[in-house]
Amino acid sequence: MKLLIVLAVVLFILAVHQLLKVIELAREIRKTKEWEPTDSENDLMGTLMLLFGIIFLGMFFYQIDRWYDKTLPPAASEHGKHIDELMFWNLILISFVFVVVNALLFYFAYKYRGNKNRKSIYYADNSKLEMLWTIIPASALAFIITFGLKYWNEITAPSEEKNPIVVELYAKQFDWTARYPGKDGKLGSTDYRQIEGSNPVGLDTTDKAGFDDILVKNEFHIPVGREVVFYFRSRDVIHSAFMPHFRAQMNCVPGMVTTFKFKPTKTTKEMRQDPYVQNLMKQINEQRSKEGKEPVEFDYTLLCNKICGASHYNMQMKIVVETEQEYNEWLRQQKSFKTLASK
Amino acid sequence: METINITNKELHAQEHIDLHRYEDHEESFISKYVFSQDHKMIARQYLITAMVMAVIAMIMSIVFRLQLAWPGEKFAFINWIMGDKWGKDGILDPNAYLTLVTMHGTIMVFFLLTGGLSGTFSNLLIPYQIGARDMASPFINMLSYWFFFLSSLIMVISLFLPDGAAGPGWTVYPPLSALPEAMPGSGLGMDLWLVSMALFIASSLMGGLNYIVTILNYRTKGMKMTRLPLTIWAFLITAIIGLLSFPVLLSAALLLLSDRLLGTSFYLSDIYIGGRPLDYSGGSPILFEHLFWFLGHPEVYIVLVPALGITSEIIANVSRKPIFGYRAMIGSMLAIAFLSFIVWGHHMYVTGMNPFLGSVFVFTTLLIAIPSAVKAFNYLTTLWKGNIQYTPAALFSIGLVSSFVTGGVTGIILADSTLDITVHDTYFVVGHFHIVMGLSAIFGMFAGVYHWFPKLYLRMMNKKLGYLHFWLTFISAYGVFFPMHFLGLAGVPRRYYTNSEFPMFDALYDVNVVITISAIIGALAQLIFIFNFFYSMFRGPKAPQNPWKANGLEWTNPVANIHGNWPGELPVVHRWAYDYSKPGYEEDFVPQTVPLKEGELDGGGHH
Q1: What is the ipTM for the molecules in this complex?
Q2: Distance of CA B397 to CAs A46, B149, B379, B439, Å?
Q3: Is residue A301 part of a domain?
Q4: Which of the four pLDDT bands, split at 50, 70 and 90, describes residue B41?
Q5: Which domain CATH number covers A257?
Q6: How far is A33 from chain B (nearest CA, A)?
Q7: How far apart are CA B278 and CA B83, in angstroms?
Q8: Are residues A276 and A330 located together in one domain of the fold?
C-alpha cells in the first residue's frame, strides 16, 4: 500500500514536471511579456472586482439578516440601554462608511481597469479635497467622543445611592464565588494567607465584620431596580467578570479590588417573556434538539472573559434577577461565613 | 549646512573605495549564502524564514479552527503530527488549544509581520530605492538576521517540550504567564518564549538602527527626503517606532523572567495557587499590561505601516498615476506613528485602570481615525481616473485598501470605552484586528513579493497563479473574519476552547463552521503561492530591466546580484518617484534618473 502511494506521488511529480516543461517551451517560442496584464485580463480582473464588491456588500446585509437577531438581547440594565443606543448609532455610522468606501473602491477598480488605448490623468494633489476628508471624519469623531465619554463618566462614577446592594465576585481557577456583606452591611476584610478549605475567599478571621458575610456558589441573586455595586477580586490569575446581558465587564486582578455598578431593569422571569429572548431561545433549543441535548430556558450568565487556563471556556455562574422581596427571601436562606466555617 | 555638505562630499569621495570593498573577491558558500552581509541576501533569508514560520502558524490556526467548528470531533492527524500530548484520540486538549492560539498569535505578529515584512522589504528596498551600495553596517545587518533566526529556532523548539510551548495568550499577562502552577503553558515553554522574544527584540533593534542610519545618510545625489518613495518613508517611520517601543517590551519581558526565575514581585501580589499562598507582594499585573501595550500598540503600526508604504508605491505604479497627496501620505504616517505612542491604554479600559485615564485614551485613540481616513481617501483618489494594470500586486494592494477600511471602522467601536465594555475581549476584537492589521499587512506583504520578486530572484512570478491565489485568499479571508463580528456582538469571549459547552451561544453554531471552512480554503490557497514562489525562483521567465515600467531606482541597475548594486557610479536622482503619465512625456512613466526639463516642476506640480 505504502509502495503504491509512493509510486503515485512519483508519477504525479513526473507528470507535473512534463506539463511544466511543455508550458515553458511554449513560452520560449512565443516570447511574450507574459507578466504584463493584457487588456482582456484587465477587463476580467476589473469585472471580478466589481462582482466581488457587489457580493461582498450583499453578504454583509445577508449576514445581518441571518445573525443579527442571534446577538445579545436588549440590555437588561439601566446604563446598558445607553450603551445599546450608542452602539446602534455607531454601527449605523461605521456601516455607512464601510459600504460607501468599499463600493467606491470596487467601482473604481472596475471603471478604471487598464486599457492600452487610455492614459491616466496626471493628478497629484488637491489640498481642498484633502482638507475636506480631514474635517469630515474629525467632526464625526467629535460627536462619537462626546457621547462616548458622557456615558463612560456616568457608568464609572462612584455610586450615589445611599444604600446600594453590594456583591463581591471572587474569581479563581475555574469558578466564581459571590459574597454578600450580611446584616452589618459591611464586607469583612480579607487576607489571602488565611485561605483554606473552610475559608475559600480568604476572609480575615480577626475581622468581625466578616462573620456574617454570606458566600454563595453556582448562582447568585440580585434584586431588580436596585443599584448593585460589584467588587471584584481574584485568588490566582487575572480573570474578567463579564455579564454581557447587563453590558457589564471588569477584570479581576490579584492584589487589587476593582469595581463596577449597574441597575438591573428586568427580572429573569420578565426577560424570559421578552419577544427577542423568546425568539433567541427558540433558535437555541432548535439547535440543541438537533444535537440531542435538553431544551433550556433563558438565564443571565456571568462569564470569565480573560484567558485564565485550561477551563477558561467553562468558568461561569448563573445570575438570577428577581423582585426585592424574592431576593431578600433567598438571601435569608443562605449561610453566613461563620456557620460555614464552624462546620 | 556646511557640515552636511562636507559629509556628503566625503561620502561621494569614498564611493570608489567603497566599490572596491564590494567588488573584492570570490566568495565562499558560507559568506555568500549563510553569513552573508549583502542586503539582498539578508532580505531573502528573512523572507524564507518568515514563510516557514507563517506556514507553522497557519497550520496551528487550522487545528484550533477545526476544534471550534466541530468541538469534540476526532481528528486523527493531530496525534499523527504532534503526538499524544496535543490531545488523546485526536481530540484537541484544552491546554494545547491555548498553546496553539498563543503561538499562532506570537508567530504571526512578530515573526511574519514584523520580522518577515520589515526584514524582507526594508533590507531589499532601502539600498535599492535610495541608491546606496548596501546598508550602513552590513555586519550588524547580518547579526540582525541571525538573531532573528535564533529567536525563531527557539520559538519552534519550545513546541517540542514535554509540557508544550507557551500558552497564556500572545499578550502573556502575568500572573498566568508567571506561575508554572497556573497552566502547563506557563512552564519551561514560557521561559523560552521570553528568551526568544528578547533575541527577537535585539534583532529588531539592530535592523531598525541600520534602516534609519542608511536612509538618513546614504541617499544618493539628488535623493532629497521629499523625493523618497513612500516605501522608504514607511520603513523609516516603522524603524523609529520600533526603536522607541521595543526596548520597553524587553524590560517587560526581563522583569517577567525575573519574577519567574528569581522570585521577584514586579507583577505579582497576594496570590494563592496550587494549594498554598505565595510570598509575592507589592507587584501589579497592571504594570505589565502598561509596559506590554506601550510596545503592543505601536507594534500594530510596525506591522501596518510598511504594508501601507508598499501598497502606496504599487497602487501609484499600477494606476499609472502619481500617488495622490504625497505629502499628506507622509504626514498621515507621521501622525499615526506619533499617536500610536499615546493610545496603548485603550487595551485596558476594563482592567480597573482609572476611568479618567480611560477617557484620555478614548480621545487620543479616536484621533488616529483622522490620518487613517486621509490615507484611505488618498488611495481611492489615486485609483480614480487611473489606468489600472492588474498585476497580482495590484490586486493585493486593492485588497489592502478594502481590509484597511473594513477593519478600521470597527476600531471606532473598540476605541470608545463605553462600547468597549460590551465587546472587549470578544470575537469582535478578533475580527477587528485580524482584518485591519493581519489582512492588511499580509496583503501588503504579498503585493510586495509579487512586485519585487524580480529584484529578489531575478525572475518573474506566474501571473495567473497569482490571480488565483489572490481571489481565493481575498474571499476566504473575509469569510473567516467578517462573521466574527457577529459572534462578538453575541458576547462570545475570545480564547474559548469551545463555545458550545453551555447553551448561551448555540444559535450561532453555523458561524464557526463558516469560519473554519473559509480558513481551510484560505490555507490551501497559500499552497498555490508557495508553489508559484519556489517554481518561479528556479524556472520563472528571466526578469527584464524594468518589468512594471516603474520610476524607482531599484529598476535602474543590471538584473544581477552584484555587490554594491550598481557597477560604476551610483545613479543620480532628478525628480520624485511618482511621475506617472506626466504630460509632455511620450511614455507613461518617467524614471527618477531622468533630468527635469527646463521649467518642469518636480513633486507633482506641472504647467
Answers
A1: 0.93
A2: 14, 29, 10, 11
A3: yes
A4: very high
A5: 2.60.40.420
A6: 9
A7: 34
A8: yes
Reported as half-sphere exposure (CB side, CA atoms, 13 A), residue A69 has a value of 13
Kindly report the CATH number that applies to the domain delimited by B39-229. Answer: 1.20.210.10
Look at residue A227 and tell me if it is in a domain: yes
Same domain, A89 and A205: no
pLDDT confidence tier of residue B178, bands split at 50, 70 and 90: very high
- Rounded to whole angstroms, what are the CA distances from B605 to A36, A123, A302, B196, B579? 29, 9, 62, 49, 10
Which one of A79, A293, A307 would you mutate to disrupt binding with B, by most B Cβ within 10 Å of its Cβ? A307
Q: In the predicted model, is pLDDT for residue B9 greater than 70?
A: no
Tell me, rounded to whole angstroms, the distance of Cα A333 from its chain centroid: 35
CB A81 within 8 A of CB B500: no
* Mean pLDDT calculated for residue range B266-277: 95
Residues of chain B positioned with their CB less than 8 A from the CB of A156: 355, 358
The full DSSP string for A63-103 is HHHHHGGGSPPSPSBHHHHHHHHHHHHHHHHHHHHHHHHHH
What is the average pLDDT value for chain A, to the nearest integer? 93
Exposed e or buried b per residue across A315-328, where buried means at least 16 C-beta atoms within 10 angstroms of its C-beta: bbbebbbbeeebbe
Q: Range(s) for CATH 1.20.210.10 in chain B?
A: 39-229, 303-540
Contact between residue B481 and residue B548 where contact means Cβ atoms under 8 Å apart: no
Q: How far is B173 from chain A (nearest CA, A)?
A: 8
A-to-B residue pairs, Cβ atoms closer than 8 angstroms: 366
A196 and A309: one domain? yes
**Residue B212 near residue B243 (C-beta atoms within 8 A):** yes
A7 inside domain: no
Q: Is B195 left (phi over 0), alpha (psi -120 to 50) or beta?
A: alpha
- CB-CB neighbors (< 8 A) of A27 in chain B: 541
B30 pLDDT more than 90: no
pLDDT digits (tens, 9 = 90+) for B213-246: 999 999 999 999 999 999 999 999 999 999 999 9
Q: What is the CATH class of B303-540?
A: mainly alpha
User: Do A256 and A337 fall into the same domain?
Assistant: yes
What value does the mean pLDDT take over residues A259-270? 97
Note whether A227 and A268 are same-domain residues.
yes
Domain ranges, residue A45? 39-115+127-156
Of the candidates A101, A94, A92, A109, the one whose C-alpha atom is nearest the C-alpha of residue A52 is A109
Write out chain A residues lying below 8 Å of B352, CB-based: 232, 250-251, 253, 256, 258-259
The answer on A279 and A183 residing in a single domain is yes
Banded pLDDT at B501 (limits 50, 70, 90): confident
Q: Encode pLDDT of B276-299 as tens digits.
A: 999 999 999 999 999 999 999 999
Of B237, B324, B306, the residue nearest B446 (C-alpha): B306
Residue A4: which pLDDT band, with cuts at 50, 70 and 90? confident
pLDDT at A338 exceeding the cut of 50: yes
CA–CA separation, B590 and B578 (whole Å): 8
Q: Is the pLDDT of residue A170 over 50?
A: yes
Q: Are residues A133 and A204 located together in one domain of the fold?
A: no
A177 found inside a domain: yes
Question: In this predicted structure, what is the pLDDT of residue B126?
Answer: 97
How does B435-469 read in b/e, with b if 16+ C-beta sit within 10 Å?
Answer: bbbbbbbbbbbbbbbbbbbbbbbebbbbbebbbbb
Among A71, A29, A340, A229, residue whose Cα is nearest residue B489: A71
Residue numbers in B near A173 (CB within 8 A):
182, 273
Q: A109: which chain B residues are within 8 Å (Cβ-Cβ)? A: 383, 388, 398
Contact of A88 with chain B, judged by CB distance below 8 Å, is answered with no
* Domain count within chain A: 2
Domain co-membership, A178 together with A133:
no
**Which three cell numbers, joined as nine digits, stand for B276?**
498554598
Grid coordinates representing A30 are 512565443
Q: What cell was used for B523?
A: 490555507
pLDDT at position B3 over 50: no
